[in-house]
Structure prediction request, 675 residues.
Amino acid sequence: MLVRYNDPSLRAVVAGRLVQFINCRVIEGGAVFRDGVLLDSARVFWEERKAADVQVDCCGLILSPGFIDIQINGGFGFDFSTWTDDVAAYEKGVSMVSRRLLEHGVTSYAPTVITSSPETYKQVLPHLGRRNGDANGAGMLGAHVEGPFISVAKKGAHPERFVRGTLEPSSEDEIDYVYGDTTNISLVTIAPELPGALQAISTLAGRGITVSLGHSSAGLEAGEAGIAAGASCLTHLFNAMNAYHHRDPGLIGLLTSKYLPKDRQTYYGIISDGIHTHDSAIRVAHRTAPDGLILVTDAIAALGMGEGSHVLGVQRVRVAGIRAVIEGTETTAGSVASMPLCIRHLIKAARCTLEQALCAATKKPASLLGITAAKGTLAPGSDADLVLVDDDIRVHATFIGGQCVYSA
Amino acid sequence: MKLIIEETADAVAEYAARYVRRKINDFSPSEERYFVLGLPTGSTPLGMYRKLIQFHRAGTLSFKYVKTFNMDEYVGLPRDHPESYHTFMHHNLFRHIDIDPRNVHILDGNAADLKKECDGYEASIKAAGGIHLFIGGIGPDGHIAFNEPGSSLSSRTRIKTLNADTIQANARFFDNDLSKVPTQALTVGVATVMDAEEVMILITGAHKALALHKAIEEGVSHMWTVSAFQMHPTTLFIADEEATLELKVKTVKYFKGLMELHRRLVE
Prediction:
């Protein structure tokens, strides 16, 4: 049976159904899956001698692994860091963001909590644990806690009163005191120059949590020490860190450091929305360390709300195009760029190939989080989390576990 | 014999694919009556495969009731090796069309008993009712499948040791490392192809010009195995201009004069 990629029959979950995507462009890997898992199509053909039960005509679109966003603060009016003591409302908000992200081709994400009080972490984190996506929404990869162990000087939009400037005397006690249970945390952004930070990095890494350096005034040496202690990423490169100075390169200097570990890739997030990082800076980063570039939206609750004035928590934010400012000021309120927009912009800004840009939103974030066995590629054995896009990175359909969960 | 001369390799691919589509559709295959196709690998038929895929996508051609038999496969090369003919066929044709994998036949170069594999292959061609249309490309030395110069014109499916030229020519597909090139292959014989109801040979490029000359302007010779098809009642050669460079002007003019008629065969 041959159907189009947006055929309603693909919305159903059918056990044992062998589905093959045809007439699509694939960067690497296969386009055959069954029971939500991608298969080696040649092996199915030659060993099982089985033809697909359903062939899906992708009309020449590009088949990419579903997008992965490891830094997103909220969207569609909901903010992951705002707790109102209404558990049901919070859960509803999280579900709503998960559902709406399907329109953006995002099939998994790390809900991001900015610098908050210890009480808030303990309230929100239990609702941000890892879960697979389904028809109701994108999967969650565990929370990205951005702070509170950051540099006051580089706090950005984070509330200063919750910033914690030291992890001494015991970083482990401090971590547990602030976050409570760390089970639901997959990624921590921390400033490596803080007292006790290196110990904290190694503690976190030891718990299987990915550590990213950011919101930091660190010099290059402190950055290198952070990486050596177990960090593997830089949070939104260029933003909330010292500018590159030729006599004091700061964290940006890590792009070319010879002290980076050889056995693992060091990554960095880039907000490629045309506002938070100048195209020239994107180019510099991409030319210098192309393998490390990961796209993040760093989107705020105004993502997906359209133009105009929106009330977000206690702030009033005005959105014009993809620029969001605090009403009545020119102060940027954060990013409102979708992942497809960031991919599209990266191609233009970095003058890179579409393949490289897609990889920065799929395989590389999955690799940073150590989840490539299931996410981020089309390799056999991976979850069939897929997105069909055209050459302008417009999302035409999103699949999770082989089930069509969105079509334009 | 027919000789179709097209301007470019792309036009050769187009003609060949249209011819195949015409043959399959005129046959109107069904569950009781399969169309049986012999298929080659290599760079020459690639363009034709692309067109066949396009026809399938456009809905003008289905392989639902088509059985295929491939010409050859290396011995000892893993099936999933990027240079195996299994990989080539799956990658370039089968995964894009609606063929039932059970109707696809390729010699197994990793079979425990290679002789038995070859004999079994001949038997399954017979069981399928013989091949309706065998498509082939040829090498610059006039070989068809792995029937290199000197192969018996009455040869059947068998194990063939590859000659030094072929191994050298194939090294580019194996990291330019001669030691990695398989030295043996399983291949249908010249007589296996001769048994087909119709044979279609694709020849493109100036480097194949001498082979085309030997194939159609000189006598039948086992040193140019493709020349055997002079003895086949229905052979169709499809060549581009470049491949005709060694032919007599008279030969070219004769066949070009028939082009109007030949065009009608694929309309």
Notes: Chain A touches chain B through 16 residues (CB under 8 Å).
